[in-house]
Design brief:
39% helix, 2 domains, Rossmann fold, 19% strand, 15 strands, 6-stranded mixed beta sheet, alpha/beta, 12 helices, 383 residues
Length: 383
């Protein structure tokens, strides 16, 4: 069943809350940014309220105004539903005079929102949706795909795992656009590096019981069980794999998209030994530690790469608005892509794929940070 969004009022709007968690701001002379994210579902920890807070931090750090206009923030829960996400985008861009939408942490929602933003010449700053079609076949001149995509994830993890002996793969794949694209791109990388794929199983978003899919993977005899999913689905996959003794049977789990919040949910005993690719890690260097401490003071948890990406993309967007003197979508995105990114997260990067990626191996280690730590970081560029 499709979900609908009320389109609000054509006249002056007042600050209000809605059942969907959307904040509606009064119309006026302002630059408006909306963060559309999963606030209540399986991806709420990786984006959610943390992405909204990261956006607030960016606006405050930019000074609260740009070219003499106040910067205002809106937020909404798209509930991982593309019809709802597109409805929110239509309301914001058509009625609330929003200039840019950030976050959009689910691929099929991002693809739907991108079409709305394209039709209205408004900017979409994607951080959290991985589908490379956003900058491939569905490419829009008003979209910037920030933080990571599934081509980067496939190269960062798939190549390293195959070269370290992981020659045969079985995929457990999220049954929507993100999962399909991640499996397809990782399959290409695995085969290019001499490996093979012996099978796959598709699990619906929000699946509670992964045992049927894990048992198929176990029976396949594949050396690697590749998890082409994210958020709560990845957490449940890994926990249930541990109960089924998959690692004890000689197979290795590879999480193709894993976040620091997932590690905290799993605990290091369960997460130990996983391979993953990340565009950001809070304890990577002095600059990441300083920013992440500010985030932690607000949210009482370390930021994910999605949340750091929301901050970075908004800062870069606002700098482009300031430089061009306009919020015209195509003009601003051209300026963004022509300007090197150089912040706490991303160093001297330019063009559509703007993030470094680094491969991490999770190991058990005592630390001052609630006995949770990720280390063994090595840097690699995605192809």
């Amino acid at each position: 069943m499709k979900l609908a969004v009320a389109l609000g009022f054509a006249a002056c709007l007042v600050l209000a809350g809605t059942a969907s968690g959307q904040e509606v701001f009064s119309l006026g002379t302002a630059v408006k940014i909306g963060v559309s994210t999963d606030m209540s579902g399986p991806y709420s920890d990786i984006g959610g309220a943390g992405s909204v807070e990261a956006a607030r931090m960016a606006i405050a750090d930019f000074g609260g105004t740009v070219n003499g206009k106040k910067i205002e923030l809106l937020s909404a829960d798209h509930k991982n539903n593309p019809d709802l996400g597109a409805g929110i985008a239509n309301q914001w861009l058509g009625y609330n005079y929003v200039d840019a939408i950030a976050g959009v942490s689910t691929s099929h929602v991002a693809l739907a929102v991108q079409e709305v933003a394209r039709s209205r010449n408004k900017v979409l700053l994607v951080s959290g949706a991985a589908d490379a079609e956003l900058t491939g076949r569905a490419c829009s001149p008003t979209t910037v795909h920030w933080t990571y995509d599934d081509v980067a994830l496939a190269n960062g993890t798939g190549r390293a795992v195959v070269k370290n002996g992981g020659g045969t793969w079985f995929f457990i794949t999220a049954d929507y656009a993100f999962g399909y694209d991640l499996e397809r791109n990782t399959t290409t990388v695995v085969r290019q590096n001499g490996g093979s794929v012996v099978g796959s199983a598709r699990a619906p978003l929000g699946t509670a019981d992964f045992s049927p899919f894990l048992l198929k993977a176990q029976a396949s005899g594949a050396r690697i069980v590749g998890l082409a999913n994210a958020g709560g689905d990845t957490i449940n996959s890994i926990k249930q794999a541990a109960k089924l003794g998959i690692a004890q049977g000689g197979q290795k789990l590879v999480a193709l998209l894993l976040f620091i919040s997932d590690v905290h949910s799993l605990g290091l005993q369960t997460a130990q030994g996983l391979r993953l690719t990340s565009a950001f890690y809070w304890d990577q260097n002095d600059a990441t530690r300083v920013w992440s401490k500010r985030f932690f003071d607000r949210m009482q948890r370390e930021p994910t790469m999605v949340q750091a990406g929301v901050y970075g993309s908004i800062m870069h967007y606002l700098a482009a608005v300031k430089a061009t003197g306009t919020t015209d979508g195509q003009t601003v995105v051209k300026q963004m892509k022509a300007t090197p990114v150089n912040d706490f997260m991303t160093k001297t990067a330019i063009s559509a794929r703007m993030g470094h990626l680094f491969v991490t191996c999770i190991c058990l280690r005592s630390s001052r940070h609630r006995n949770r730590e990720v280390h063994g970081i090595t840097t690699s560029r995605s192809q």
